[in-house]
Amino acid sequence: MTIEKDMECFNLLTKDIGLDALLFLVSIEEQIALLPATILKGYHHIQLVTSLINSRFNTQYSHVTILSVRNNIDLNRDFITRLRSSSNFDVFIKSYCQENNFSFSNLLQQRIYLPYTLTCLNCNPTIPLEVFQPIQSIRLLEYERIQLATIFKGTCKKCKYTYGLSCAYNHHTTAVPEIIVTVPSLSHTPFFHVSGDIAFSRKLLEQYSDLLTISQAPFHGFAKLILNSIRRYQPEEKNFVSHRSLADRLQNVWMKYELCRFRFMLGKETLIKLPYSFEPKLRDYYFESNFDYFYHLFVTFWTRHKHVQTSCDSKICSKVMITDGHSKPRRLICSYDDIVDNSIEEMGPINIGCPFTPIRKPSNCTDPDHLRYKYCYLHQHLAFLSGNSDRKQYSVQLQQALEIEKEDIQYLDQLDHCTVYRRDCEDVRKCKSFGLHLTFLSCGVVIAFDEAIRSEGMRKVTRHLLRAIKHGGILPPGILYDAACSLKLHWQRWKGTTYLKNSIDTEQLPQHIAIDKFHQKNHVRAMCQDIMRYDHASHNGIFTDIDTQTAEHFFSYLTKFKSILRCFSYPRSIIYCLLLFHLYNCDITAIDPSSYGIAKTHFYTLIKNHYTTDTIASSLNDVIGYVPLNSSNEIYEFEEDKQRETEEEMTEKDA
Q1: Predicted TM-score of the model (pTM)
Q2: Dihedral angle, C-alpha 542, 543, 547, 549, nearest 10 °
Q3: pLDDT at position 148, please?
Q4: Same domain membership, residue 148 and residue 176
Q5: What is the 3-state secondary structure (H, E, C) of 19-50?
Q6: Which end of the chain is more exposed for a tag (fewer CB within 10 A), N or C?
Q7: What distance separates the 2 farthest-apart alpha carbons in the chain?
Q8: CA-to-CA dists, residue 372 to 352, 378, 382, 636, angstroms
Q9: Residues 372 and 506 in one domain
Q10: Angstrom distances, CA of residue 57 to CA of 43, 70, 134, 335, 650
C-alpha cells in the first residue's frame, strides 16, 4: 500500500473524531466483538459506544457520526491492524542490525532504562552524572515472557560510583566490589537487576516468596515452571538459559532481593551494601558476618509485633511463648566439636560445635571412609595428624563447657527420672545436626530460632532464650515446653551461680514454666502432674485459651521443607531460615513484606545501627595452633605446614 493511500485512510478515519477517540473506538469494538451477537443489537450497540466515547473525551458526538466512523473502520480493517501493530518491530530491528552490521543496535530496543538516579547520591546529589554508557542487551524475565531491553549506567567522575537500574556500584574504594541499594532504587522499575544478562521481574520474585511459604516451592522447581511457561508462550526463546543456570541465578537474586526487603522493613538504614559477586566464598562470609545483625532485626520486631496493626487475635497475641526442637531438617555437619560460644556471659562457655558441611567425596573416591570426609574445609587437616587421627584434642574452654554439661546431667539424673528429657551431651554415629530449635508466640509467630548443631539440652535451651533477649527481644512471662520439668529444675539449680549468673537479661527469662498439653500425658514426675501442668492455679490462667500445640502445627508445616533445608550448607542455611520464617510471619499476620520503615516507625530507639561480627574462620583458635585454610577444597598436609612455619620463625629471629 502506498503512502498516499495510507494518508487517505488516515484522514478519512480521523477527520470526524480525531486519533485518540478512533483508537479508543477500535478497542471498544474489539471488546464487544467477544460478546454473543444477540447481546447488543443495532441501535443499542451504537448508543453504548457513543456514550462511552463522549464520557471518556468529554465530547458530544452524535450516534450518526460514530456509526459512520465505525463503518469506515470495517472498510479499512487492514490499515487499522497495521496502525496499531508493533509485533514485527523486534524482528525488523534484529534483521536490520545483522544485515548492516549496526554497532548501536542496543539503542533500538523497545525497552530502554536509564539509571535510577541522574545525580550522584554518594558525594553530591546536585552534581549530574556525566558519563553514560549503554551496556549490552539484557533480558527482562517475567513469568510468561522475555523482553529485550537496554540499560544505561551513569558514572560519577568524582567518586567513581556507577549507577544502574536497581543499585549503585562501588568498584574502586573497597577491597571487595559492592553494590548499594536504596528504597528508591529497589522500587524504581518493575525489575530487579544487579549483574548479568537477566533482570528479574520484582513481581516474579515476590510470587516465588508466596509460593515458598504456601507450597514449599524449591528454586529448581520454580525455575522449571518459568522455562515451561516461556517454551509454551514464547517458543523462540526456549533455549535462552539452562534449567540449572536459571535456578542458581534465581536463588542468588532472590536472596539479595529478599534481604533488601527484610532490612528496609525491619531496620532503620537508608542504604544497604552487599557484595557485588555472590560467588560462594564472598557470599558465605557476608552471610555469616552479618547474621547477628539480621537476627537482631528479626527478634526486635517480631517479639514486639503486637504493637503493630496485624491480623492477630489481640486476646492471645504475644501472651505466652512455646519452644521446642525439630529434628527433620538435620543435615551433615563437620565432626570437629571444639567450637565454643562465649557470647552469653552469664552462662560461661557453651559447646556448639562446627556447623559447616564436611568436604564432599569425589565421584572417583577409592577410600570413602577416609577421615578427611568427616571434616569441613576449615578442619580437614585433622585427618592428617600424626598418631591417632581420631584422637580429640580439647581446648580449655571446651573442657570447661563439657564439665558444666556433665555436672548438670549428673544433677538431673539424681532426681526422679522423667520419660521426657533432653541432654546436652547426646551424640550420633554419623555426624548430623539436631535440626532446629524454635520459639513461637501464642499467636503462632516465630520469634527466635537456632540451628541445633550438637543437641537440645537445658543449657542449649537457656542459651537459645538468652540469645533472643541479648539480640533485642522481649519475652512474655510464660513458656510452654515439652521438657519443661527439666528446664525448671535446671534453672532452680543453676540460677544465681557461676553457670547462670543473675543479670538484667536472666531476669527476663519467663517466670511461668509449664508442659504443653500434647506432651503432658508422657510425664511421670510428681511435679509434672502438679505445678508443671499448663492449667495449674499458680500460673494464674496465663495459658488459658492458648493452643499448646502451636509448635507441632508449625513443625508439620516445616517438615515439608526438610529436603530443601538439608541441601543448604552453613551459613546459607541460617539465612534461608531467617527469610523463610520472616515471610511466614508476614503471611500469618497480614503484614506486607514491602512495608519499608515499619519497624523504625514503632521501635526506632531499639534498632541498632548496622554491625558485623567475627566469623568462625576468623575467630578460630585451635589448641594445636592451626591457621584456618582458605575456602577451598584442597587438602593440606598439616605436618609440612607446621614445619614451614617453624622455619619461617627461625629465619625471622636470625634476621
Answers
A1: 0.81
A2: 140
A3: 86
A4: yes
A5: HHHHHHHHHHHHHHCCCCCCCCCHHHHHHHHH
A6: C
A7: 108
A8: 21, 11, 7, 11
A9: yes
A10: 21, 17, 40, 75, 91
Q: Is 588 exposed, middle or buried (0-12, 13-18, 19+ CB in 10 A)?
A: middle
Tell me, yes or no, whether 39 and 113 share the same domain. Answer: no
* Beta-carbon count within 10 A of 286 CB: 21
CA distances from 74 to 26, 68, 71, 301 (A): 10, 10, 5, 62
For residue 149, the cross-strand partners are 111, 138
**Quick check: 637 pLDDT over 60?**
no
- Cα(303)–Cα(465) distance, rounded to whole angstroms? 12
Q: Give the CA distances from residue 590 to residues 223, 308, 594, in Å, rounded to whole numbers and listed in that order.
A: 27, 11, 12
Q: Which three cell numbers stand for residue 58?
A: 468529554
Q: How many CB atoms lie within 10 A of CB 72?
A: 18
Number of folded domains that form the chain? 3
Q: Which of 629, 619, 573, 635 is nearest to 338 (CA)?
A: 619
d(CA 523, CA 512): 18
pLDDT per residue as tens digits for the range 226-242 = 999 999 988 888 888 99
- CA atoms of 1 and 522, how far apart (whole Å): 88
Distance CA(425)–CA(403), nearest Å, equals 10
| Range(s) of the domain holding residue 188 | 99-278
Number of other residues whose CB lies within 10 A of the CB of residue 494: 21
**Paired strand residues for 178:** 170, 275
Q: 201 and 320 in one domain?
A: no
Same domain, 54 and 117: no
pLDDT tens digits for range 268-286: 999 999 999 999 889 999 9
Kindly give the pairing relationship between strand 436-441 and strand 146-155. unpaired
Contacts of 209 (CB under 8 A, 6+ apart): 254, 258, 583, 593
Contact by Cβ (8 Å): 623, 382:
no
Strand partners, 450: 437
What single-letter amino acid sits at 260?
Answer: C
Per the listing, cell 522481649 goes with 474
Position 625 in a domain: no
Summarize the confidence of residues 192-202 as an average pLDDT.
94
Q: Output the DSSP codes for 586-647.
A: HHHHT--TT-TTHHHHHHGGGSPPP-----HHHH---TT-PPPPPSS-----HHHHHHHHHH
**Domain identity same for 143 and 58:** no
For residue 35, what are the CA distances in angstroms to 28, 81, 141, 348? 12, 20, 34, 77
How far out from the chain centre does Cα 183 lie?
A: 17
Q: Which of 234, 145, 156 is nearest to 191 (CA)?
A: 145
DSSP 8-class letter at 129: P
Q: What is the pLDDT of residue 553?
A: 92
